[in-house]
Amino acid sequence: MKNIILSDIHSNVDALLSVMKEITEKEGKIDRLLIAGDIVGYGASPNECCDIVRYLIYGRKKVALENIYKIVAQLYFTSEQQKNLLNAVMSLEKKGITICGNHDREAGGEPSLTTEMNPIAMTAVEWTKGVLTKENIKFLKSLSLRMKFSKEEFEIVHSTPSYPQGYEYVRNASVLKYTSLWSKVTFGGHTHRPSAYIYTKEIRTVNASVLFPADNYDMRLMLIEKQSTNKAESFDIDSNRDWKYYINVGSVGQPRDGNPQACYVVFDSASKHLDFRRVPYNAEAASKKIRDAKLPNELAERVLKGV
User: Fold this and answer.
1) Considering the chain, what is the average pLDDT of its residues?
2) 3-class secondary structure for 98-167?
3) Can you list the domains of the chain with their CATH numbers?
């Protein structure tokens, strides 16, 4: 099956719709669109993002198509571009599956018992709580922490599979161990920085092979691990039964790897091929919405700089 996997939309409807459009124009027929949490938080369009995601999951029986049209019509696109955006969302109807992230939990009134948000993030959460509709709060509270696809040997989780409610940041390869991964392939988000690591049962001098580095620590590992000296934005999952993969798909709405373009991953669970993608969008519009909502200015700057 052909899966699109994305994460950390963070109330950025401009980025989300640009990704929807890119998927329908560039990826051909897909079977599922999987979201690894944090639909809301930081950005200024939480209801719009929740409505779109609910439409992707449940279709027009629960979210009227008129609602999606109203969201698209609010944007800066021409009428022809708005029509294309609407068609893009409609083409993905009922293909969505999502789990929750820490911002979704907080906005739904169920704060994490193990981690605390920084003041800027909490300010955004409190603002989000004040504007979310009752229906969208109920939706966020209904989401699970993990989703496993056993027959295809992969799962999605916001942070780590062994302790998903802890929302641990997997900022580099050393954070995880082979025994903490429960599936052949685990897809996550949370750090907003795309990365890809291979873990093995072998006793080795380093924790993992790095295919796609998230920071300088990972770059150093790439020099040690001879099989992974090049940054691989496209690769096949090896059939070796003793290898496990952790893939961070990055962020749609607030990337933090120095590139402000939205992220997503394409994964064919039959051929075991995986591709990282980036999508340009109107970050200036998303930034202006954050400022207009009187959210912290740092959040408006982050979407422009990708940090």
Assistant:
1) 93
2) ECCCHHHHHHCCCCCCCCCCCHHHHHHHHHHHHHCCHHHHHHHHCCCCEEEEHHHCEEEECCCCCCHHHC
3) 2-305 (3.60.21.10)
